[in-house]
Structure formats: C-alpha cells, structure tokens
Amino acid sequence: MNPNVLKELLDGVKNGTVSTETAMNRLKALPFEDMGHAVIDSHRELRQGFPEVILCEGKSAERIISIIEKLRSNGSSILATRVEPTKSEAVIKAIPSLQYNPDARTLTLSEREFEEKGAGVIMVISAGTSDIPVAEEAAVTASMMGNKVERLYDVGVAGIHRLFHHRERITSAGVLIVCAGMEGALPSVVGGIVARPVIAVPTSIGYGANFGGVAALLGMLNSCAPSVTVVNIDNGFGAGYVASLINRRQERPSSSCEI
Asked: 32-40: which pairs have CB atoms within 8 A and are 24 or more residues apart?
C-alpha cells in the first residue's frame, strides 16, 4: 500500500472525517504494490484469509524470487505452484528456507506457526499413481491453508476393493478431493458412499480418447452423485483452496477476490 494513501486514511479517522467502518472497508480493497512485472495484492489475506499464491508457469526464476521476497516483507506465508525443478533449485539457492515438493511442484514457506483452521480432515484421493502430482498440489494447498490433510492414493475403479478397504477413513473425512484421469469415474463412486462434499479433479492422464482430461472432465460434470462438484483439468490448487473454504471452522471473510 502507498504510505501516503494510508496516512491520509488514518488522518481522516483521527480527525473524524472518515469513520472507522469506512476505513476498514477501504483497507480491505485498496492496497496493492506495483513491481513493474507483477502487481502484488498485499491485502488478500485480510479479505480472503490466505495471502496471494504465485503461479510460476511462464515466470523466470528471478521474477519468482522477487515476488516471494516482496510477499515475505509483508509477513505473508508463501505458496508457489507449478514450479519446474530447475527453477526451484535457483529459487531455493536465493531463499534457502523454502521447501520444495517435487510431486506437487510447489514451493512453500510459513512465516508463522501452523494455525489449524479446519473443522475436520480434508482427504485427498487419487485414482492412480499417475494422478499423484495433481493430488499433491491439492494436499499441499489445503495443508498450507491450515487443514489436517490425509492422503489415499492409487485406489481407482479398476480395483475398487482398494477403495472400500478404507471406507471408514473415507466416511470420517470432512471434505474429499478426488483426482482421476482416464474416464474420471472415481468421484462418483466416492460421492455415492459419503455424506460430505466431494471436489472432483479431472487429470490429463489417459490415452487418446481421454483428450487431455476432457473425457474425465465431462464424466465428472455428468456425475449422478449430487454431492460432487468439479474444478478444471489438473487444477489441484483450486480444489485444495475450495476444500479449505468449505472446511473452515471460523466465519468466512465477508468479501472475496494467483498472480
């Protein structure tokens, strides 16, 4: 936030020309920092409960580093997604405290002690091992947002007994994220045995007629299980974020708005 704008606002509150309520509303929507190559939404955590997330596709390591350093200067925790291994090495060399998850392709750093915000467990399920990168992106996102996360991988419909072996764990979860490629059937199966929200994530895993995840996407959109909702192809981040909002224990922020 521009210091002069903030000073004017605070002076207005001090001399009575601006109400406290008006100042709070302006602070929720006003601040950002223009870095030239990126515009940092520095008060997103105030509005949404979690700071801005960095989508690293198409960004150089140098720009990723500069964005992370700017967010850290504001006291924000760091979640960077779609980080290629070679870029992660360069970024971690500059900021050694970052943690890299090679499956999820995420860089993370928490500036504060973990604060548990979830009302229950978020369970992340993958149909096959090839879906794990998307599932891990969802799991890391949900974990960074203050949730207990459990993982259940390689339990797809080709061997459905593997899923039912964990039925007690599945039915005790508060929210479920189900990642599947091929025909995308697993979320419907899970939705048929739980009384909880199921967030389906189609992955681009599959042979030709999978059409890069489109077949799985359409299968999930046409699910006959009414508890199933769907995010975009390979969007583990979006699934983890939405699951966290659903699972929040405290009251949700009143207003909403990845580099």
From this structure: 32/1, 33/1, 33/70, 35/66, 35/67, 35/70, 37/63, 37/66, 38/63, 38/66, 38/67, 38/259, 39/259, 40/67, 40/70, 40/71, 40/74, 40/259
95 near 123, Cβ under 8 Å?
Answer: no
Number of structural domains in the chain: 2
d(CA 23, CA 66): 30
Residue 44 neighbours by CB distance under 10 Å: 20
What's the start-to-end Cα distance of the chain, in Å? 17
Q: Where among 80, 109, 138 does a domain terminate?
A: 109
Q: Model confidence over 212-247: pLDDT tens digits?
A: 999 999 999 999 999 999 999 999 999 999 999 999
CA dihedral 238, 240, 241, 243 (to 10 degrees): 120
Confidence of residue 75 (pLDDT cuts 50, 70, 90): confident
pTM: 0.81
Which three-class secondary structure state does DSSP give residue 14?
helix
Distance CA 85, CA 247 (A): 31
8 Å CB contact between 111 and 77: yes
Is residue 255, in this structure, part of any structural domain at all?
A: no
78 with 162, same domain? no
C-alpha–C-alpha distance, residues 226 and 127, integer Å? 20
Question: 22: which residues sit within 8 A by CB, 6+ positions away?
Answer: none
Angstrom distances, CA of residue 40 to CA of 33, 60, 201, 228: 5, 16, 28, 34
**What's the DSSP call for residue 224?**
S
